Amino acid sequence: MNTNIKKIALVRLSALGDIVNSSVVLQFIHAKFPNAKINWITEEVFSPLLYNHPLIDAVHSVNIKQLKKEKSFSLLKKTISDLRVLGSFDIIIDMQGLIKSSIVARILGKNTHGFDKNSTRESLASLLYQSTSHIAYDENIVRRNCFIVSDALDFEITDAMLLQKNKVFPNLKPYKFASNEKKNIALVIGASWKSKKYPKEKVLQLCDELEENCHIVWGSEEEKEEALWICEHSASAILAPKLSLVQLVSYIEACDLLIGNDTGPTHMAWAQNIPSITLFGPTSSRMIYKTPQNVGIKSPSFVDIFKINKNDFSIKEIDFKEIAQKARELLKNAI
């Protein structure tokens, strides 16, 4: 192990769920290199989630989406300049493995490490790394995140360590629900694609079946309209408030259980050691790290992770009663 590492840059630009799952590595890096300074480079929209994290010394944001949209040379020049003035790093680890993230990593310096050409969808990214790691692309996403970091830093992150992990986002201001005898269950109804969303009609049936405090978590105005519809038709449904990313983590941490689509807020439950059920249609359960209290329910469809079918709406075939039964089991085991 290289004990001389003093300054580490982690590049993980997006998306929300990937950043949540990737952040687990921080506690393991800190345990091995307690004096190392960790910098994280991410998309501007996700940076508030990482600010004030006790194990991150600095968060630096880029706005790749704005660069693509505006095609502004001056903005590109400023972005490159801002990255180059961050100073030298002992190692720069690209946890994303895309061309855009490899370019960001390379701008930061020469000591770059990332996935090899056979371990990522965009194999050209590997040309910009000084050193690489190989891990199957269809491996569990959390294991991939941990391996690329641990291999770069020459130590091991085991399944036992993951099962015994601390909260990924510690020291958050706790959220408090009004006290009553019912359990607080967060239901995450949004997703990046429509085919990843469990139908609102079935969410409604699930709320009625559970008969607990079902907090409907929403992000966009479209999701809010769906959440309001569910709340208007179910006595068990409660509209969650508008929440920032940090507030959302605290809100989910205060719940007894989370049920949601394969999307960023759903992954926050695993991050904070809260029981969860993730619903899968066009994606597979490799997107979560399964534990006795964090499980997935997959629709009947076949998923080819090398060619995701965004028109696979089979998530609607998942029986709400199956979800409710699993929810009761997790709640009972958590007592």
Name of the level-1 CATH class of the largest domain: Alpha Beta
Order of helices and strands: EHHEHEHHEHEEHHEHEHEHEHEEH
User: How many beta-strand segments?
Assistant: 12
Q: What distance lies between the first and last C-alpha atoms, to the nearest angstrom? A: 42 Å
Runs with pLDDT <50, length 5+?
none
Mean pLDDT: 95
What does the radius of gyration come to? 20 Å
- The CATH superfamily of the largest domain is identified as Glycogen Phosphorylase B
- Count of domains: 2
How much helix is in the residues?
A: 25-40%
Tally of DSSP helical segments: 13
Largest sheet: 6 strands, parallel
Overall geometry: globular
What is the CATH architecture annotation of the largest domain? 3-Layer(aba) Sandwich
CATH topology of the largest domain: Rossmann fold
Instruction: Label the structural class.
Output: alpha/beta
Strand order of the largest sheet: 3-2-1-4-5-6
Proportion of residues in β-strands: 15-25%
